[in-house]
Amino acid sequence: IGKLPAHTLVMSRRRQGRELALGCLYAHFSTGEPVETVFEGQSRRMTTDAETASYAHRLFASAVEHGEEIDRLIRESSVNWDFARIGQIEKNILRLAIAELKFCLETPAAVAINEALELARDYAAEESRSFINAVLDRVYKGGNAAAGDGAKGTDSESADGPPGIRNPQLPNEG
């Protein structure tokens, strides 16, 4: 087997860093433990090099440090969807991606969004990918969901929430 190209290794490291950061976010928001405590515990579970661990720590710390702003962006970009009803995995994928979009500017937006969708494919419910894509598209474009700024490439699943899950804020359609 030949040696992998450098760009492939970077992508693999970044993806591994995102997975570590996602695990840290899940642990942090589930337990309320401090960032450093969570990061130490989670990083022991995953073998990473120093560069990958540093990237994961920066993503995780940014998502927590800017948590109020990030959660506000999620709320504003989720049309008719109660924030409390968004699953923890989906919410943390959104937090991670928005932190990367807003605070890790060396990553192109399209890459950050695509990587979030890959994480969703691996860890979230299948029907959540369209929702995550629509929310991230609105955040990236600076759109206000209340103003009807739709996400391109999405359908009725968009930021109205994952299909098949009735939002209690919406009137009963049936």
In short:
The protein is mainly α and 174 residues long. It is built from seven helices and no strands.
Compile the SSE list and pairings.
Layout: H1 6-31, H2 35-45, H3 50-65, H4 67-77, H5 88-103, H6 109-123, H7 128-141
Helix pairs in contact: 1-2, 1-3, 1-5, 3-5, 4-5, 5-6, 5-7, 6-7
The rough form would be described as globular
Distance between the termini: 57 Å
> Approximately how much helix is present in the residues?
55-70%
SSE ordering: HHHHHHH
- Secondary structure category: mainly alpha
* Helical stretch tally: 7
| Overall residue-averaged pLDDT value | 81
Main pleated-sheet profile: none
Rg: 16 Å
Which spans have pLDDT < 50 for at least 5 consecutive residues?
Answer: 144-174
Number of strands: 0
Throw out a few tags for this protein.
174 residues, mainly alpha, globular
Notes on the protein architecture:
The protein is an all-alpha fold and 174 residues long. The chain contains seven helices and no strands. Helix 1 packs across helix 2, helix 3 packs across helix 5 and helix 4 crosses helix 5. The radius of gyration is 16 Å and the shape is globular. The N and C termini lie far apart (57 Å).
